[in-house]
Design brief:
With about 325 residues, the protein is an alpha/beta fold. It is built from ten helices and eight strands. The chain starts with 12 loop residues before the first helix and ends in a 33-residue tail after the last helix. It comes from Actinomadura miaoliensis. This is Peptidase U32.
Amino acid sequence: MDGPDARPRLPGEHALGELGFPARPETVPGSARAFPDGGAWRTELPSCEGPAVLAAVLDESERLDVPLHRISQGSGVWMLTDAEISEMVAACRERNIELCLFLGPRGSWEAGGGARTYPTAGPRARGRDQLAQCVEEAERAVALGVPSLLVADEGVLWTLHRMRAAGRLPADVTFKVSALVGPVNPASYQVWEHLGADSVNVPSDLTLAQLAEIRALSAAPMDFYVEAPDDLGGFVRLYDAAELIRCGAPIYLKFGLRNAAPIYPVGRHLLPLAVESGRERVRRGRLVLDTLARLGADAGMSPLGSRDPGPLERFPVTGAAASLTAP
């Protein structure tokens, strides 16, 4: 220290400053960013596994007056028939809701034992074959009208973004990064954005200060489980919802469900559980909205039907990928 009133050096801050990171905040600042429509927050209902669950979710959201911007699914495109996907696309399109389907296969479901020994490897695509199979899933989904895809692998995301940039996938298809691989610092969050992410799910145990640090560096919309499933920590942050919006905007508030049995991959043998879990997620959403209203923090929601993530930063697409042409 240079004098009696000088503060200790913070570890690593000198290097981050030289790399262009914003100064470390003394208090948790609010976000100055918003969605292109001017809204600060949107809603998402996750784990909507198939047409029957979707029908129950839509019915419950109407009954409880829970507005939904996005509905997502976790079992994967490959666990749905073309007819089931088309039915889900039509139902969401009719209500102006964005439908997001997970890409598979993933490491935790294949023969390699490493994905089970090392949990962080589980959601990723193992080897060239699974990478190619995820591409196949993406092409199938968008051909059936799915507007948004959920990814859990950096290589899959970058490959799909290059295909989108080259016109092999629709320019308006959006890519959402799964909570299974969510980044936990500003640099990793920015990397996902640059790889092509249009929204990024962060772990629900991040502090408000950590969310603000991410938001200071990246404009990519954030996805956040206000209530997280048990396998993602089981955190319940109902009373943080207002601050999550203030510090994390633009942000999707996700209505998850703790203390619920795992259902991936879903099927008829789990259908009653999947349906009732879906209905309860909607009710959890009503609790979040009621809490925001009581706190006077329910303003600033994006108009229903909004899905544009806004202009985002990307790594340049060069070389052979830049010259791909649509078939």
